Amino acid sequence: MTVDVLPEHGTDHVITLTGPERAEVETTARHLADLAPRLLDSPEWLAGAREASATLPVRLRQAIRRFTHDAGRDGVFLVRNLPVDAAALPPTPNVPGSVQRETTVAAAAEVLVGLNLGEPLAFREEKSGALVQDVVPVPGMEKFQGNAGSVALAMHVENAFHPYRPDYVGLHCLRNDHDNQAGLLLASIRNALPALPDEVREILRSPRYTTAPPASFGALGADPRPHGILSGSWDDPDIQVDFESTHPLDGEAEQAMAVLGDALRSVRRTFVLETGDLAFVDNRLTLHGRTEFTPRYDGRDRWLQRVFIHQNHRRSRVLRPTTAHVLVS
Ligand SMILES: O=C(O)CCC(=O)C(=O)O
Ligand SMILES: [Fe+2]
Which residues form the TauD/TfdA-like domain (predicted)? Predict the structure, then answer.
């Protein structure tokens, strides 16, 4: 069978808010920014945001609903012209592990969209378990293969090692870099699949790979279990790979992974995000990475805010000792 069974179009899922729609979202986000206790991680605040998320402009909610039904060939949903209150934006943070704890218009807007895709989540061991995390360059970490770096970041599924990795990764641009050079790289398995011969697909589906967690994930790092990179439907598989931390267990598996890498590279697209752009990547279908850029550490550097979303919140209950949103291992 061929990939005829997939949607025909590329990035169907782009919506640019009109002026009135943006104003509507801004009114709601401002209300939430002022809502007690003004802390993004508090269950009370999140409850208020959940109610408010049902009042976003209908056209936006319809677009999200189409995306959660089918993420399209590219596996990305892009909302443009969201409010970020640029005039009131503080200097870009530049410390390791920076997160957003206090409510802001930009963070509220991102959470409002995210709540229409599912439930936010975070990992206790990562970025101190904050639901909204800063993606910013950090002095001295330029070569780091993580979001504090500024060299090219290898293509990856987010938290590829983790059984409850996010279904969607939201990246909201508050500021791009000075040179407008930093690009979010995206490559979907739906676009790459036609370039994979059947025998390569077969190898990629077998448990001949391990994926290491980042050092910060502690005990789970001890003995990663072998897994296949592709799973599920033969014609429209899910993908689980991180080109920095997934390791083939034999030579054939290594070759198959190289073919996959080439196929993904050939369909890779670059999105240079602007202030007010929010990309939600379907983390089951699409890998992301980043081009190189040059930070200046002058308070005006690139600044994204990231949220993770689960479509099925119930599934991760076993790792959440309370009904809150933080997974403990
Ligand atoms: O900096 C970027 O555009 C992406 C960084 C990244 O992979 C992440 O924050 O998950
Ligand atoms: Fe990432």
Answer: 73-307
Total domain count, the chain? 1
> Any idea which ligand is nearest the CA of 135?
1
Q: Ligand 1: which atom is nearest the Cα of residue 182?
A: 3
State the chain's mean pLDDT as an integer: 93
Q: Which residues contact 45 (CB under 8 A, 6 or more apart)?
A: 32, 35, 36, 37, 38, 39, 103
For 236, counting Cβ atoms within 10 Å of its Cβ (0-12 exposed, 13-18 middle, 19+ buried), the class is middle
Ligand nearest, relative to CA of residue 185: 1
153 CB under 6 A from ligand 1? yes
Which residue's CA is minimally distant from atom 2 of ligand 1?
290
Q: What is the pLDDT of residue 310?
A: 98
Mean pLDDT of 177-184: 96
For the domain that residue 17 is a member of, what is the CATH number?
3.60.130.10
Sort strands 326-327 and 119-123 into parallel, antiparallel or unpaired. parallel
Count other Cβ atoms within 10 Å, centred on residue 69. 7
- Bridge partners (DSSP) of residue 327 are 123
Confidence of residue 217 (pLDDT cuts 50, 70, 90): confident
Other beta carbons less than 10 A from residue 99's beta carbon = 19
Task: Give the residue numbers spanning the domain of 90.
Answer: 3-327
pLDDT at 221 over 80: no
How far apart CA 265 and CA 135 sit, in angstroms, is 24
pLDDT at 11: 54
Distances (CA, A) of 76 to 81, 242, 255: 16, 18, 28
Q: What is the pLDDT of residue 213?
A: 87
- pLDDT for the residue 186: 97
* 247 annotated to bind ligand: no
- Give me the mean pLDDT over the 86-106 stretch: 95
